[in-house]
What does this fold into?
Amino acid sequence: MANIIIYGFLLLIFAITFFPFWYIFVLSLNDASAPTYGQFMLWPSDFSLGSYRTVLQDEEILNSFVVTVGRTVVGVPLTLACVSMVAYALSKRELVGWRGFNLYFVFTMYFSGGLIPTYMVVRSLHLIDNFWVFIFPGIMSIFWMILVRTYMEGMPKEMEEAAQIEGANDIQIFLKVMIPVCTPVLATVTLFSAISHWNAWYDSYIYTYKDSLKTLSAVLVKILNQFQTNDMLNTSQQLANEQRKLPVSSESIRMTVTMVATLPIIVVYPLLQKYFLQGMLIGAVKG
It folds into this structure.
């Protein structure tokens, strides 16, 4: 009886969290000319791919998709490299100044310079309207570093000692011993970093002015904001007007862009799921 209650509760939670996403997906596939306001829909009443054709033919959205893919492909490996190298160094308690380095990194988790000083630093580095503004300012995450460091500290010291006896130096031990055994936690960090890059929009919003550097999430925010503004013709309606032969509307465009921005990162999650739980639990228990 207890199991039935638990499974029923979990099923209810799943339905509550999944339905809004499913509803957006249904609306994106529904013919925009069909009345949907106030209706409870579990599947399209009039199936149509018109909104997806419109979105995938828009240059701004396609360009933003390329920018988002680019920052994810470039940013994730660089973040993974920085996080793992710093974590490996700080996992060695014999490191000179070990406690001071740890305090220094932890301090930055709780205190920052603020938006204006950060903007001034970014500008002084000539990263405004530069693709690398998406990579360098957020290349290091202290929380992810602590997660990886904690995982490395839990590894048997005998592995490194055996490698040292064979003549391996610190770089060889890091690349050939620690990295392979830290696959679960590194996969977890990879997933976190990929989601962070894919969903990022604020850095594009404040650090870039060129339309060619806008990310997909930034374009989505722009469309959603302009849809709610009554004193201008919103971007979603413009997209609909450009394709008058296709039955699309501003509502369907909003839902479709949301799906285009969400589906790719959802597809990545199952590929890393088997490592995700293990990496999180080991890091949390050890910490």
Observations:
- The two ends are 36 Å apart (CA to CA).
- Residues 250-286 form the longest helix (37 residues).
